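Reading a protein record of the kind used here takes only a little practice. Each token is a code from a learned vocabulary of local backbone shapes. With that in mind, consider the following protein and its fold in token form:
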Amino acid sequence: MTHAPATTPAEVAPLYTPEEAGRILRMGRSAIYEELRRCRLRSIKRGRSRRIPAEWLNEYRTLLITEGTEEA
């Protein structure tokens, strides 16, 4: 009997709630929702829940760093 080769499951980056994203970015819940409303931070809406992929948190972090260096 031969076995199929073992496959490694695809690595999936986590999806964070706005509250979790706020803790990661050290921002309040209201600030996160304001950034979502202004489309500066992207999210996925599925039904009534909203999730933010890790990649988009990094994208937003880069935006903040860029804005911070432009102001200096």
In short: Residues 61 and 67 are 10 Å apart (CA to CA). The two ends are 67 Å apart (CA to CA). The chain has a mean pLDDT of 90. The first strand starts at residue 15 and ends at 16.
